[in-house]
User: Fold these one by one.
Assistant:
Number 1:
Amino acid sequence: MLDVFVGAFVGLLVGLAAASLFARSSLAAYRHRLEESSRFRDSLTTDLDALRREAAELKELRVRLEGQLESLRAAHARELDHVRDLADAINAQDGDIQASIINDGTKANAQRLVLSSAKTGRDFDVEIVANDTALQFDTKAIEAAFADPKNSSAYTGTATSSGTYTGTGSKTFIVEVLSAGAAGAATYRVSKDGGISWDDNGGAGYATSTTAAALGAAGEGVQLAFSDSGTLSSGDRFHVDVTSPELRAAQDAVFTLNGIKQTRSSNSISDGIEGVTFDLLKADPAKTLRFSVERDDKLIVDAVKEMVDAYNALVKDIRDKQTFDPETNTGGPFLGDRTANSVISTLRRRSGAPPLASRARFAASRTWAYEPPKAGASRSIPPSSKISSGTIERPSLMF
């Protein structure tokens, strides 16, 4: 009888110890969750305070900038009125001077006061009587060839350039010796783009010559001759500069947009219509081009999809941290945290999410996938939503 009593008493003590241990473990886990929740709440509070301060500062800055902009507009209007008054006063005089105001298309001080005279000046001629020099704006030239300062001293001769340049644009021909030897025996390769690419005649190279010979297969009229003095070493380089001046009178682009004649210094117009850039490729005053501007719905859809994806990802992350695992008797850091629930409620309210199923998702086809409720669960669908072929035909956010 005593043994039975002792056994029962020992069992009771063991049970009490286990219960006490479980209680302490649960209490420690609960305290841990409280600490995690407190830290998360403090972090959110700090972030929200910072966002509020930034929003207030931005609002104040916007008000200040709008005030400055309005002041500038008023000042510009007053200045323009003064210019108009001046032009009217000049034109009111019985004289040969006429005043007009034009818009030159510039962003700053676009309105210009232009004075013109009804009487022109006298014709005159200018004659150069001495030291006249042709400017040679339309003349292509082949400059004298020169050796690279890093060349070997074994070659003491010179390279002489000649010919008539037939290419376009100014450039530099580079001649590099491939195989060493005397002039006439050594071979070379040639580059027309500063050494980026080379023409080496399929690896065989081109033979040097003591008489004027074309530079490779595509020398564009440039010829080169080497004097027979010394030995050309592999890697020696010689340079020939060619020039081809291409001059064109500078002028602004002139066009009429919506009946208003405008000028720009560039053929790319990006400030004529807000959000539209067009390039002027050819001038044809007799031709009128008509075009329409439409809203890009794809950009709007993509922006909404990106917002919804970010919203759903955040909500899922918070919900995952609010779960409880009965096997390990542990809960997520946001379990029972009112701040986390408040964040979701605030996001839902700000985004205008309707009360749809908690597993609504954004689909690429602009429909919303609907997952039926599990057995024993219920889920309400608003009458305004239409279920067809397993989709909810109304955009929604997860919550």
Number 2:
Amino acid sequence: QEADRVLRKQSLLAWTKSSEPRLRQTIRLKSLAPFDNDDKLLRWLKNSVSQMGESIDFFCDQSELLAGDEVAGGDNSWRQDAMFRELIWLVRMMPPMLLLADLLLSLPTGPCEFAMAVFGFTGDYKRQWEKRLVTQCRNAVRRCFLRDLRRGRTPLETIHVLSFDDSDFERNLISELDLLTQDFDSIAQREIVVD
């Protein structure tokens, strides 16, 4: 680790001498010289990785919109300029991020976050994706209950199938059913089970 630290420090010092920091993020990195504090460098790197993911996501979105606008015949010069600025940002930020990449190995999810950012998957994107996934799962469970209702299956049987042999989970869901009829008393009860 000490050898990595010395190599990282010397590489960053050489990088700051050879490049003009024109971006706010690179100016901030240069202010961290002599690059002795790994915690500050790691915070800078995590922030930069997050921004890289957002930048790549923006680039991909604009690229799709640009392709659609070309078909429609719209003016795309502003979109091309924005994409070019994102490319410049990525080109200038990649060397220092790669020089500091070994710091990500100290985090449990560091390498994964870096890899996801390379593909444009940011924390916001992940939260939105998880929210959509939960919504789709709820809809699928609702459809399952409705389909089984049409087929004459009881909610008890549907719950048994959907609980995948997890008896504690199944008992918890069955507690929402009416004991005598083994059915839901209301749609609100069904929604509790769906959630």
